[in-house]
Design brief:
About 30% of the residues lie in helices and about 30% in strands. It has about 150 residues and is an alpha/beta fold. It has one domain: 3-Layer(aba) Sandwich (Glutaredoxin). The strands form three sheets. Strands 5-4-3-8-9 form a five-stranded mixed beta sheet. Strands 1-2 form a two-stranded antiparallel sheet. Strand 6 and strand 7 form a beta hairpin. The protein is globular and about 40 Å long. The model has no long low-confidence stretch (mean pLDDT about 95).
Length: about 150
């Protein structure tokens, strides 16, 4: 699992428009990578809308925001359009980057065990080094928590 002080593994992921974003493209920029389970589900909608609500404040601090999961660029586009999101969602349909980050984890819900994307956030500096990690976040409170700490 990637932790504070580690470099972000190489990635090349498509956004909702099919544009490719790589960690090399982001060198020299600070960014927030938040991993979430599934587009258009209640908790993930809450988390995305909350990140979007404070997006200008993240930008003022010099951070871009990217959401990552296994959904397709087409589903990301629907999610963005339906909720008027102003940041990019990145698609990792094979889960390779998600696994490299340690975000493909065993979960339990109503007594059922399965694997899915862990709800976690990584704050990354201009050199691609993780400076803060948040695990098991609460969707509605999380964006504000990150913003408070970055301020």
């Amino acid at each position: 699992m990637i932790d504070v002080g580690d470099k972000i593994p190489d990635f090349s992921l498509s956004d909702d428009q099919g544009n490719v974003v790589t960690n090399r493209d982001l060198k020299g920029q600070k960014y927030i990578l938040y991993f979430y389970p599934k587009d258009l589900t209640p908790g993930c909608v809450n988390e995305a809308v909350c990140f979007d609500a404070v997006l200008d404040e993240f930008h003022d601090l010099g951070y871009k925001v990217y959401g990552v999961n296994k959904d397709t660029p087409e589903l990301h586009r629907e999610f963005i359009e339906r909720y008027h999101l102003r940041f990019r969602l990145l698609s990792d349909p094979e889960g390779e980057f998600i696994e490299k980050m340690g975000m493909w984890q065993e979960k339990k819900n109503f007594g059922k065990t399965y694997y899915g994307v862990a709800r976690s956030t990584f704050i990354v500096d201009e050199e691609g080094v993780v400076v803060k990690v948040y695990h098991k976040v609460k969707p509605v409170e999380h964006a504000q928590e990150v913003l408070r700490e970055l301020n």
